[in-house]
Amino acid sequence: MSDGVSYEDYLDRYGTLTYTNTGASMRPLLREGRDLFIVRKKGAERCAVGDVVLFRRAPDKYVLHRVVEVRAEDYVTLGDNSVIKEYGVRDGDILGVMTGFVRGGREHSVTEAGYRVYAALWVRTAPLRAAAKKAVGKIRRGIKR
Question: Cis (ω within 30 of 0) for the bond into 28?
Answer without folding.
Answer: yes
